[in-house]
Amino acid sequence: MSAFSAARRAEVAARAGHRCEYCRLLTRGQVATFPIDHVVPKAAGGSTDPSNLALTCPHCNSHKGAAAAGPDPADSSAVRFFHPREDVWEDHFAWSPVTPGELVGRSPTGRATIEAFGINAPDMIDLRMLLMKLGLFPEAAV
C-alpha cells in the first residue's frame, strides 16, 4: 500500500511529466510503479508537502535511499543532490554529445547525483538506448 493517496500520486506524476525527475526515464512502458521520493528525506526533517516530493524511477530511488547529499566525484566535496523543486535540470545535467544515453553533470550537484544514483549504470544506459530506438527517449540522443 502506498503512503500517498491516488490524488497526490497523480499530482506528483503529472507535475513530473510522468518521468523520473532525476534521470528523465518515462513511466510509459515500464512495468514497475515509480515511487514518490521525499527529496529531503523524512529522517532529515523533510515534509510530505508537494514541494518536497518527486517522482523517481525505481533505479534512482533505490540508489538515493534516505540520503540528501553525496560527494562530487571531481573533488570529493560534499554537495546536496539535485532538488527538482529548487533546481533547474538543465543547469545540472546534459546528455553526452559523445556517448548516447549517458548523462553528464554540469555542476557539482549534477555530478554527485549521477554518481550516487547510479544513473549511468550500464543497464540504465542500455535501457535509454533501447527507448531511443523506439522513439520513447529522444532527448538522450545525440
Defining traits:
single chain, 142 residues, alpha+beta, two-stranded antiparallel sheet, two-stranded antiparallel ribbon, globular
Q: Please, could you describe this protein's structure?
A:
This protein has one domain. It contains five helices and six strands; from the N terminus they run αββαββαββαα. The chain has helices at 6-15, 58-64, 89-92, 108-117, 122-133; strands at residues 36-38, 53-55, 69-71, 78-80, 93-95, 103-105. The strands form three sheets. It has a two-stranded antiparallel sheet. It has a two-stranded antiparallel ribbon with strand order 3-4. Strands 5-6 form a two-stranded antiparallel sheet. A hairpin with a 6-residue loop joins strand 3 and strand 4. It is globular. It starts with 5 loop residues before the first helix and ends in a 9-residue tail after the last helix.
Shape summary: globular
First and last CA, distance: 40 Å
- What helical percentage do the residues reach? 25-40%
Strand content: 5-15%
Number of strand elements: 6
Over the alpha carbons, how many angstroms does the gyration radius reach? 15 Å
How many domain regions? 1
Task: Write a brief caption for the model.
The protein has 142 residues and is an alpha+beta fold. The chain has helices spanning 6-15, 58-64, 89-92, 108-117, 122-133; strands at 36-38, 53-55, 69-71, 78-80, 93-95, 103-105. The strands form three sheets. The chain has a two-stranded antiparallel sheet. A two-stranded antiparallel sheet has the order 3-4. Strands 5-6 form a two-stranded antiparallel sheet.
